[in-house]
User: Which sequence fits this backbone?
DNA sequence: AACGTGACAAGGC
DNA sequence: AGCCTTGCCACGT
C-alpha cells in the first residue's frame, strides 16, 4: 500500500491512535476530531488502511460510531480485531461494544 | 478529468 | 430498528 511520506495528515492521525490507552476504544469520528479533521472519519479509516505493519499501531482500538468493528463479520480481519480487543478486557455484547463504558475520554488521566 | 471505492457518520423515513 | 442518502477525502483506473 502506497502512501504519502511527505504529508503530515496520516502522522497526525497515527499520533492520536497511538495514544489510545490499552483497554479503551475510540471511534473513527473521534480520532478525526482529535487529529484536527472534524467530520472526516473516512480519512481515518483510509489512514489506518495505509498503516505499515511495522508501525505496531493499536489500530484495533478504533471502531465505528455504533460500537461495532468496521469489517464484515466474514472477513478474517474482523476476528483478529475482536480477539485483540477481548484480550484487552473489552466486552462484546451482540458483537457490539458499549461505548459508554469503553470509549476513551482524552480528558481523563492517561496512564 | 471523471468516476468509483473505501476499516465513516449523521440524518431522514 | 433497519435501510437509504448525502457529505467527506485520498487514491487508482
Assistant:
Amino acid at each position: 500500500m502506497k502512501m504519502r511520506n511527505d504529508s503530515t495528515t496520516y502522522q497526525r492521525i497515527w499520533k492520536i491512535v497511538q495514544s489510545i490507552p490499552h483497554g479503551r476504544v475510540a471511534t473513527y469520528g473521534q480520532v478525526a476530531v482529535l487529529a484536527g479533521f472534524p467530520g472526516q472519519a473516512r480519512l481515518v479509516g483510509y489512514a489506518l488502511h495505509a498503516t505499515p505493519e511495522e508501525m505496531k499501531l493499536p489500530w484495533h482500538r478504533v471502531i465505528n460510531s455504533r460500537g461495532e468493528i468496521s469489517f464484515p463479520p466474514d472477513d478474517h480481519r474482523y476476528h483478529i480485531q475482536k480477539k485483540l480487543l477481548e484480550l484487552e478486557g473489552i466486552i462484546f455484547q451482540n458483537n457490539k461494544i458499549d461505548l459508554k463504558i469503553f470509549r476513551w475520554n482524552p480528558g481523563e488521566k492517561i496512564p
Notes: The beta strands of chain A are 26-27, 62-63, 92-93, 96-97. Residues 27-29, 32, 39-49, 59, 62-66, 69-71, 75, 77, 81 of chain A lie near DNA strand B (CB under 10 Å from a C1').
